[in-house]
User: What shape does this take?
Amino acid sequence: MAARSGSGGAFAEDVLTFERSCMKGIVGLGGANLKQVRSESEATVNVSPEGDLLDVRIEGTPEQRALARQLLVAYAGQEPLGAEAEDSGEVEAEQHSDEAYADPPEADEQADAEEAAEYHDGGQGRDSDEQRVVLDFEQRFFATIIGQAGATLRSLRSTSGADVQVKSVREDGVVRVTITGTTGQVQDAETAVRFL
Assistant: This one.
């Protein structure tokens, strides 16, 4: 487990690193699993894919972080990477974690901010302003996004709270997904759609 704790009181942040293949289990259909983790633990949980890895940031009290970690491990079906190293006192994973989260060069700040916003928390501190995101996918993903008899689309809408519209744009050869709602709703729906 690559984990860091923030400073100041009992409220802190842990970073768990999983294999990217755990993403579907952690996020769940329509974001249902991630939403469950946030709801049950009352922690702020952010998911951020990084190449072949998946970083999960958990913010909250020690109890909230512990419960969120337990639920995430259950959904992932495995312990976070590096958990054994930390348990045995090795610091290599921690040092790697510090390097990975060092402040990015100024030229990369915009891209990093956009990527972080793309997978940002859907629980606490959400912006109430209405947002709109338009995503284009290859035409072959139309059935996956809609689901059998519209089940996946209904689940995306009910789980995220966002308005999700799907349109086949044949002249462009794409499926266009338009997501509208608060920042948190849009981020939840976008994360779920990208990992169907």
